[in-house]
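Workshop exercise sheet. Pairs work together: one partner reads the sequence aloud, the other fills in the structure field after running the prediction. Swap roles for the next sheet.
Pair: D.N. / O.F.
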Amino acid sequence: MSINLEGFIRRKTEVTLGGKEWTFTELSLSDFAQLRAKMVKERKEHLAERRKQLIEEAKGIGNIDPLKLLEHLDKPVTDEEMDAEMETVGGCGYMAYLSLKYAYPEVTEEDALKMVSI
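Structure field:
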């Protein structure tokens, strides 16, 4: 009896970019989790500044509770936000980086972003 491991082997796709052939590897759930973690980290980095802006805006309007506005900042990253991020140039470049890192550990996010821009 043989076991079919086809579902566990990541597919690879050869793509020529800038005159060089690159191997892109199928992404896993772990890769998508890395994108979510990156988005959460970036959100936290900008959160303090955004909190100040919201409080000032609420003061300017006058009849808005700043705490209600702040509740919107503390929500987790949604699937819709992840989908939207993957459609941006930066998100697409990051996903390309995650795909390339399996065959080319030396490739950086910046390298991948340049490839996507080609």
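Discussion prompt: The mean pLDDT is 84. What would you look at next?
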